[in-house]
Every structure is written in C-alpha cells, then in structure tokens.
Amino acid sequence: MIHTVTGMVVRWANYGEANRMLTVLTREMGKISVGAVGCRKPKSRLASGAQLFFYGRLMVRESKGRNYLASVEMLDAFFDLRSDVRRLAYATYLANAAETFMLEGEPNEELFHLLLSAVAQVCYGSGDPRDIRDIYLVKLMDLMGFCPEVEHCLRCGKANEPAMRFVPEEGGVLCTACAPLAGRPISAGALRIIASSRWIPLTKMGSLKLGHYREEIEDALLGFVRYHMDTRFKALAFLDEIEN
C-alpha cells in the first residue's frame, strides 16, 4: 500500500550501513516511523528527505506493517537553522514538544500547522526564538486542553490583581487572599501576555515581545509543563546551556 503524506522530519536514527529511521509528523497520519533505505549513500534520491526539519511530500510504502520511504518532494528544509545553533536548539525544542503530543496514526492538523508555523518563524523571522518558544507552549497547551487559567483566581473567581500567585498544581493563578504563600508571584502584565498568546494568529507569534516579563512567564510556563506533563524535553538542557 502506498500513502502520500505531507510531513516534517523531527528525529532520525541511523541503522545498517546506509539506512536511517525517521520520525515524521504528518498532516494526514499523525506521527509515523519511516525507514529510509539507502538514504546515506552519496547519490541517494532519498537523502534530502532524511534530514532533520525536512518538510515536504513523502511517498510512503507500507509493507508487512512497516513504512518505507519511496520518494520525496521538498517544500522547505529550513537550512538557515544549521547556521545558527541557538535557533536550531529552539526549533528542536518545538519539535520535541509536538512529538510528545502527536499520536501514531492519528492526524492532528492543528498541531501540525502550529509546529510548522513556529519552526518557520524561528528559522526566518526576526523575533527572538525564546519568545516564540514561550508563545508556542501556550498555544500547544491550549490546543491539547490543559492551558493554565491566567485571568481569574481559580478558587474565588476574582479577576487578576496587580499581584497574583501562579500555582502549577492548582492549574493556574490564585489571588493573594486565597493563597498568600502558594506557588510563585506573577505580575498582571505577565498574565496578560500569557492570555493574549492564546489568541494571536500563528503567523504573528514572532511579533509578540515578552520584554521584561520574560523571566516570570518562563518560570510559570516551564514549571506548569513539568508538573502536568511529567517530562523534560530533550532540547531543554541544551537550551539552558546556550542561554546561560
């Protein structure tokens, strides 16, 4: 059986003398594993499609329960990422996060387009990739149904005050009357940016500047992700090393 899909390569592993196993996030089939046989040979016509962040159309042949790459048509390869290690690291983080939620054989077109748009802006845009990463996380959590509540106290329903407490285990913010010492303090300005990140168009993610709110936004979001996803994306340690 032959399938033609549009997808992005988010991970690969070499096997055998000239082969590569690809993890591809696709619009039509969700996450799939595809064997690219012979792609590491010098003149292989599959070589371009077996690279990290290849984006294009892939013809996939299914045989005995496994997928094999038959041909590729490149739409983009985001080559500029390879000349900027910081942007490459952030793009890898985005891919790690999307791969965590994209299920095998289950299409999620919204998630696919969120990843594609974010990687394109990290690669080609003028915005800070760190800001794009944070906005992407908000959109990703919103899409998957566990975005933090950042506009009202979760206990009493009071609208945000100048000083609120962000409590990951509660699912968002609490006012100081309900939880004077819980979680960590977070400003109303930071909460407004998190809230607006949910609604900003995908193509404008690079235009929203976090400014001096960045540190408290990141503390809140990354703490929330760690608590609710019980995972630490592989690229995060590398990002920490780059930024620090």
Mean pLDDT: 91
| Number of strand segments | 8
> Major β-sheet, in short?
5 strands, antiparallel
Radius of gyration: 20 Å
> First CA to last CA: what distance?
49 Å
| Strand order, largest beta sheet | 3-2-1-4-5
Organism: Gehongia tenuis
Family: Belongs to the RecO family.
GO cellular component, one term: bacterial nucleoid
Pfam families: RecO_C (PF02565), RecO_N (PF11967)
Features:
OB fold (Dihydrolipoamide Acetyltransferase, E2P); DNA repair; alpha+beta; 8 strands; 25% strand; DNA recombination; RecO; 244 residues; DNA_rep/recomb_RecO_N; 35% helix; elongated; de novo design (two linked rop proteins); five-stranded antiparallel beta sheet; DNA damage; three-stranded antiparallel beta sheet
Mind explaining what this structure looks like?
The radius of gyration is 20 Å and the shape is elongated. The strands form two sheets. Strands 3-2-1-4-5 form a five-stranded antiparallel β-sheet. Strands 7-6-8 form a three-stranded antiparallel β-sheet. It has helices at residues 85-101, 109-124, 129-144, 188-197, 214-229, 234-243; strands at 2-15, 19-26, 30-36, 55-63, 66-76, 163-167, 172-175, 184-187. It has 244 residues and is of the alpha+beta class. The longest helix has 17 residues, at 85-101. The protein is built from six helices and eight strands. α3 packs parallel to α5. It has two domains: 2-76, OB fold (Dihydrolipoamide Acetyltransferase, E2P) (Beta Barrel); 81-154 and 156-243, Recombination protein O, C-terminal domain (de novo design (two linked rop proteins), Up-down Bundle), CATH 1.20.1440. The model has no long low-confidence stretch (mean pLDDT 91).
